[in-house]
Write a structure and sequence with these properties.
Length: 154
Amino acid sequence: MQEVVTSGPTAAGQGRPVPSGLLYALRVLVVAQAAGLVAAASFAGQSVQKAKDLLAAGQALPADGMLAETHVMAGMVVHLIALLQIVAAVLVWRPGRGAGWPALASLGLFLIGMGQHFTWELLGTHVPSGLALFGLTLAVLVWAWSPRAAVRRS
């Protein structure tokens, strides 16, 4: 006689792991997000240093904004990755039955990034929100690569 499980861990899907393809996609995207943020921060630092050097030499800053162009482009790539990361995190959460908070954190990454885009000239908000981006990305990155990420929730 075959036993039918109607309750317990296997009935709720807790005995099976989150689909590996979905989790792998999220892992790739969160690593790309972290790399993009490191690049954007590096480009911002280079822009500030170049502006400082020009001012120290008594030269005017270029009016066309070319100093920060690489920082802006890296930020645009980070926005795109964040959008894709939201999709991957939602797929890990809903059909994959993984944890839901990475989807919410990924949405936060996208919204904070958009806020940075619109407040680029206000360093008092741009820099702290950049740190928040690093913190959220690190949290999702650590979770995505931990063994707990593969565990299904009920």
